């Protein structure tokens, strides 16, 4: 994200007139969720100011980056029935309370919010008989991937959370290998995790295009929430 992230954490970079993380928080109902935001200690003053008008949140201070699983291990309340993970550089078009309510009535250990396509700034190559037949720039890849949003039963995932490991790379494969049930929920998605992705999002908004999370949720499972949840951003 250089040079932008040399000035601000990328979650505070502006999109559609306000910091990116405000769009995420707008999708999380503070009456239902306690919002726990993982931030570096050095960024405390920036986030303290940005969250001055938001209720029911906690800033979880991190001295040095050590993997999402390690951060969750330190901050997840083991007494909570379930919790939400939402990576701070992505927006997902989803009704979050509905997904949590769905997990409550199933025997699954978690739900991953997935997307079936991703724009890319790289050239896609078609090869036939060892010869290049076509090159397509800025092609949308049709491949299912995790958006960075998920809901998990606390007692199911807690034994897998350790320092310096990653959820997608380490935790999920181990849970699946051990027979855990992880459901899929599909949604539209965009991210600002890289410099090209951030510029693509800004240009799309300047053209008046709708982006996931900046327009009303369209792919959701709706039901009334029953329990206070913790959301980790």
Explain what the structure shows:
The chain is an alpha/beta fold and about 230 residues long. It has seven helices and 15 strands. It has a single domain, classed as Spore Coat Polysaccharide Biosynthesis Protein SpsA, Chain A (Alpha-Beta Complex), CATH 3.90.550.10. The protein is about 25% helix and about 30% strand. A hairpin with a 2-residue loop joins strand 9 and strand 10 (about 130-135). It is globular, with a radius of gyration of 18 Å. The relative contact order is 0.23.
Question: Would you spell out the secondary-structure blueprint of this structure?
Answer:
Elements: E1 14-15, E2 18-19, H1 20-26, E3 33-40, H2 44-50, E4 57-62, H3 68-75, E5 82-86, E6 90-92, H4 96-104, E7 110-115, E8 118-119, E9 124-128, E10 131-136, E11 140-141, E12 145-153, H5 154-157, H6 167-177, E13 182-186, E14 189-191, H7 195-206, E15 229-232
Parallel strand pairs: 3-4, 3-15, 5-15, 7-13
Antiparallel strand pairs: 1-2, 5-12, 6-14, 7-12, 8-11, 9-10
**What about the largest sheet?**
7 strands, mixed
Kindly report the spatial arrangement of strands forming the biggest sheet: 4-3-15-5-12-7-13
In CATH, what is the class?
Alpha Beta
> How would the global form be characterised?
globular
The average pLDDT is: 78
Question: What does the radius of gyration come to?
Answer: 18 Å
Helix content: 10-25%
Feature tags:
about 230 residues, Spore Coat Polysaccharide Biosynthesis Protein SpsA, Chain A, globular
Entry summary:
The protein has 233 residues and is of the alpha/beta class.
